[in-house]
Structure formats: structure tokens, C-alpha cells
Amino acid sequence: MDFTFTEEQQAAVEAAKAVFAGVAPDSVPSPALTPRAVAEEFDRALWAKLAGSDLLSLVLSEQHGGPGLDAIALCLVLREAGRVLARVPLLEHCATAMAVQAHGSPELAGALLREAGQGSVVLTVAAHGRSGHDPAELAVTARRDGAEWVLEGVQTSVAWGHNADWIAVPAHTGEGESVLALVPRPAEGLSLAEQYSTSGERLAEVTLDGVRVPAAHLIEAPGAWDHLRQLLATGTCALALGLGEGVLTMTSQYTGKREQFGFPVATFQAVAVQAADRYIDLRAMEVTLWQAAWRLDASTGGAGGPLPSAGDVAVAKIWASEGVRRVVQTAQHLHGGFGADTDYPLHRYHAWAKQLELQLGPAAVHEEALGDLLAAHPLA
Known about the structure:
The chain is of the alpha+beta class. The protein has ten helices and ten strands. It has a four-stranded mixed β-sheet with strand order 1-4-5-8, covered by helices on one side. It has a four-stranded antiparallel β-sheet with strand order 2-3-7-6, with no helix packed on it. The two termini are 24 Å apart. The mean pLDDT is 93.
């Protein structure tokens, strides 16, 4: 079997590295020193560079102005974004665009996708429900009223909700069906309240009070929201991997220069063993990430497996949520007091790692979900 990336995927990585090369993780105030959001906006200059490099249209088909690449290519780019703590809605934007392209009406796709690929329209998604723990689709109800749908409910912690032009809102019909509504931010009946992430980013609590959505802006395809939710989780794992790799590189450079007893601390066995353990964590995060991304792409093409793709995503989430925490904790330990210095970027990576861990959820929950899948789908 050939596990190498395609030429197109490798080209996307090179383009991403070029765009993110000049990004400084400390370009905004420290979240440790800022009681509110570190900035009102995401990095619009970086967003323009991503659009200019055709990275925002990466997953769009030629019909909508893109090369038609897959979830693996998106995760490769997200990995590079995680290395530098890129403050852009790249994951939410591209994942929502993929959902609209795969399941949306021609009217909706025509209205959003080409401009989304150019970066002039920004998409995000409400993926955390009302509490952050319950399924997001249960937080909002959708009922049909003639040629429109009416949305009622609350979604919390919506990333970039104050800055996006459209918000994808999962909802339930009351008949056991999940739907996905695309709502313009200035829609009548939609209000936003400010929230703040652990990493200091501005989030939104979105309240929908009788928001009306045309039928063409609502996706009813079975499995559309579930696939988008899995894609968001897999993309978050990619961000965690990139962040962890950036932190381990930073730790390697620091311990290689820091001396004790006349020797670099990196040469001490206790330091080397801890760094090696974190390297193993990152490699496990990587292999489970690519397995999950491949299964998501394969499932859209009709290819199956012994377990649904949700099983592979659960394994990736188990490793990412625990692995990224272990990597930053070890980095803090090996840096000593220097790691907590707010003039040094490591504390920013720690805050972002905690936010990603919270988004992914505890490993025990994913282990239980994986156990349920194994029980429901015997492998023998």
C-alpha cells in the first residue's frame, strides 16, 4: 500500500507553509494578560493571503472555482495552521463549504461557494449545542412553515460567530431528523452575545428567536450534519497535531541550548526520555488523524469498513485530546519557569492546547462511544 500524499496534497502543504511562514503567534495580546478577547477580529491580512494562495477554495470543485481536493488536503493545511496558532476560521469555513457543496441545494451552493473560495464570504458553524456537552442538533428546533423553516434555540461557543457572514446551524425537526440551516448573520431574530475561549478568542452565543430560513437554505440530506461534525472533529485533531509539533520543536531547541552542569539539558536521560514519549504521542496522533481523514473521504465515495467512520474519528479524538495535553505539559516542565513567561510564546500554545482539548472532549467519552460502536458492529 502507498501511504504517500498525492502531488496535489503536497502542493497544498507547500503553499500553506509559504503563507504561514510569516505568522507570529504573539501578534495579539497575551490571553493570560487580557480579561476579554485578545482581538475583535480574526487575522484578516492572513485570510487574504490564504485566499490569494487558493487555500480557501482547496476543497471546492472546479465548478465553484477550486481544485476539488479532499479532507486529507484540508487537514494537511490545518496542521500547518496549528503550528503557528493561525487566528483564522479556516476549519469552520472549509468544512461548512464542503457540506454545502455535497448536500446543499444548487441555489445555496451558487450563492455561497465561489465567494467563499475567494474569501469575500466567511462561513462558520455552530457545533457545540447549548451547553457544549449535548449534541448540537438538539439545541435548536426547526419547523416547516410554508416555503420556509423557523428556527428556535441557542447555540453556545460559536467560533468566529461575530465575524462570519453565514452560520451553519444544526437543528432537529422533532421527528428524530437532523437538519443543517445556513443563516446569514444579520438575520431577523438572530442575536449574538459575547463569550471568550480559553485561548482568548472571541466566541458567540447565538440565540435564534423565530429566525426564518428559505427551504433552499436548509440541508435535509440524511447524514449531512453527522459528516460535518466528524469533519470538524478531525480538523481539530489536525490543529492539535500541528500545535504539538510546534511545541516539541520549541522544546527541542530550548533544551539543546539550556545548560546545566556544563552540558545541554537535552543530553540528560530524564529529559530525553520525556521528549521521546511526547514524540511517540505525536506520531500516534498523526497516524490516527490520517486514518480518520481517509475514512471520511472514503465514506463519501461509498467505500465502507468494519466500523463506521465515526469509530476512526473517535480513535483520533482519543489520541489528540490526551496527546496535545501531554505535549504542552511536558514542554512547560522542561522549560522550567521560562515556559510561563508571558514574553515567551509557550504559554500561548498551552492556552490553545487546552481550548482544543475542551473542543474535542475527554478521551473517556470517546472510548465509551468506540465501545458502543464495536458492540453494535461485531468484527468477526
